[in-house]
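Input for the complex:
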Amino acid sequence: MSTLAGKHIVLGLSGGIAAFKSAELCRALVKAGVTVQVVMTEAAEHFMTAVTLQALSGRPVYTSQWDPREANNMAHINLSREADAIVVAPASADFMAKLLHGGADELLSLMCLARPIDKVPLIVAPAMNREMWANPATQRNVAQLKADGIHVLDVGQGDQACGETGDGRMLEAEEILDDLEAFFSPKVLAGKSVLVTAGPTYEAIDPVRGITNLSSGKMGFAIARAARMAGADVTLIAGPVSLETPRGVKRVNVRSAHDMLQAVQAHVPDQGVFVATAAVADWRPANSADQKIKKDGSGQTPQLSFVENPDILATVAQSAAAQTGALFCVGFAAESHDLLAHATAKRLRKGVPLLVGNIGPATFGQDDNALLLVDASGARELPYASKQALAVQLIDDIAARLTR
Ligand code: CTP
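Predicted:
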């Protein structure tokens, strides 16, 4: 379940062409279980109608501080007191300048000024032309807004509605949703660095063929995302998968087990947690041909021989950092049967404090899974759920172990 479920968010729109993305954001928030109260400035109404946002939020939209629907005629007080957060998206350059100076000449800025700052966080998603964004006045305002405790989200980069290209676009609705989810997630891994391996590896036979496995990388990517939501600095070493990089996560792409080992060794110093979810190929062809192996017409098949790949997890688990407890190592076990027995044996063989078992054939490529957490004192099941939900539970479990 999203950390946003059950929250009440006031979604403010100031004037900007990015307002079309706010419709998408409103819909996504409602889908995540949020009640959304939309407030629009007069400028915003030039870009998007209140009717659209009323239909998407399922609530009447407020556009004026003189709204007679409020019995006490204090919409700015009533609306801000109910909110878990006020999110202004788009936040125009002018609106941010107004916030900075405590301007309050229309409902949205008035409400932002009147909010109890200790209880109702204000989050703004800037949106403007690249020159406006780069202007020292805007940058000064952004720095001051942050210093005042306002959460200023990043801007996107790329083609702008004005035809120019650069920084200043408003983030996409999905990105804002992700940042809001991160905002409301308990920061159980604040200040920690987490390294995650994910996906399969690919071992080349020749330049056009190789051996790999059915791992989709979804569990590892979900863990990287959950760790970032929990406040960690996350590096994800990914085998060949076509998944999007979770927001805020550093990604290193690799192909073979050897590449993965090198990347892990380059990044593991200074990490506090290592989670090995990758389905590393156990063997690789002893010789990888430089050129494509051709049929010679005789009907003979190539004779492949294999050598064992390095065990990345076991190698890291034997390092001084892991042995002294400075690095907490978590292994995974993809089994087809006798999960508890195999996971228990594998934990000891790999030399890790925590090993997470799952049934590989049942979960590869799926969005759901069930996990068995095996440690020195026994086993605990995380029942069938989405990989995202399981990842959050696993990260909570790891965080609790770090403080023991
Ligand atoms: N692992 C690894 N390097 C390898 C093989 C596995 O780092 N060469 C890690 C995986 O990322 C996982 C754990 O070790 O965290 C167990 O992987 P798994 O494939 O289930 O086990 P294997 O070690 O391959 O053992 P077996 O094939 O006997 O099940």
